[in-house]
Amino acid sequence: MPIHKLINSLQITACLALLLGSAGVYAQATQMPLTITPRTRVIIDNDLSGDPDGLFQVAHALMSPSAEIRAIIGSHLSVNDGFDPSKKQAENAAAKARELIGIVGGGNAVQVFAGSNTAMPNDSTPVKNAAVDFIIAEAMRTDTKAPLYVVCGAGLTEIASALLTEPRIAGKLTLIWIGGPEYTDLAVPPPGYSHVEYNLNIDKAAARAVFNRSAVPIWQIPRNAYRQCLMSYAQLLLKVKPQGQLGAYLYQQIAGILSRLQQYGLKAAETYVMGDSPLVLLTALQAQFEPDPSSSDYAARPAPLISPDGQYLHNHKGRMIRVYTRLDTYLMFEDFFAKLELRGH
Question: Start and end of every Inosine/uridine-preferring nucleoside hydrolase domain (predicted)?
């Protein structure tokens, strides 16, 4: 037999063996549903009485079996914020969390805390509450090796206070924060932008405590990145609203906001920024091997200092942080839609 035919024969034999072996594995897999168990621990901190994008993030997280949601902290907004101008914003946020857990179901083990209703008085004086104590206790656990992420979709009051109270936790968790303005060498600010980004403005002292005074690892999703997370109104109608009680509830949160905008004479866009959803993308949707949110892009750069008025100051001695520049919104939203649909099967 000519050598080239022998080689081809061996290749075909190897391929057949591989295919037959794969078929056997596939047959076993179809008979034995995959069981996904937690690989990460997550503490969610969000202003859930404010922009309803946080409710989408929490619902998505609760439906994600690879992330163990250890607690949800309802946090405050800025004083007199249009979403919730009350003086009990944190309590209202915690109530929203409990309401959502009741709809999603299966969340009896998730503790809910109301954070502080006010910002820190300065960048060195922590607030004291049960949410701060829980962050510290969870970070100091020695009975698990699962990495801990504290994910914040609003201000940084509680995590800043925890870091000031017990600095040792900085080496035991990763902070993922939706907030901060654009870095001018990475992105251009949007039209009509505010110089102090919305979430940073909620508690500038807390941002200064985290960036200027702590050593905690930070994965930051600044304004130019979280504005990429656009869900269309057509998607809300077709992929969210029909999906049972949870889908109808989430849809109504956005519909209510759009209705209020129209009452004030503002034209509604065809899209809504689900800016908090990357908190799920970067924790629950990590790669199987070499676990990391590998489908999104970031720049590694020294952490800036935050000025008293909420601006970045160059800090060549700053620790290296991740600043996300591009997010895999396809994976993020398709996973959310699929999990909503699977709840009905």
Answer: 42-260
Domain ranges of the chain: 40-229+274-326
For residue 168, give every residue at least 6 positions away whose Cβ sits within 8 Å of its Cβ, in sequence order, or none: 140
**Between the CA of residue 25 and those of 18, 28, 31, what are the distances in Å?**
10, 5, 10
Q: What six digits make up the tokens of 296?
A: 């999104």
User: For 281-299, how does the pLDDT look when each residue is reduced to its tens digit (9 = 90+)?
Assistant: 999 999 999 999 999 999 9
Q: What is residue 297's predicted lDDT score, i.e. its pLDDT?
A: 98
Q: Facing residues of 178 across strands?
A: 221
Q: Range with the lowest mean pLDDT among 6-20, 34-48, 103-117, 203-217?
A: 6-20
Write down the mean pLDDT value for the chain. 91
Distance CA 88, CA 71 (A): 20
Write out the DSSP string of 2-30. Answer: -HHHHHHHHHHHHHHHHHHHHHHHHHHHH
Domain 40-229+274-326 CATH (choose: 3.30.1330.30, 3.60.110.10, 3.40.50.720, 3.90.245.10): 3.90.245.10
What are the beta bridge partners of residue 152? 45, 177
CA distance 156 to 119: 9
Question: In sequence order, what are the residues at sequence separation of 6 or more whose Cβ sits closer than 8 angstroms to the Cβ of residue 232?
Answer: 270, 271
Q: Is the pLDDT of residue 107 over 60?
A: no
Residue 293 contacts residue 281 (beta carbons within 8 Å): yes
- Strand intervals (E) in 212-308: 218-221, 230-232, 271-273, 297-302, 305-306
Entry pTM: 0.90
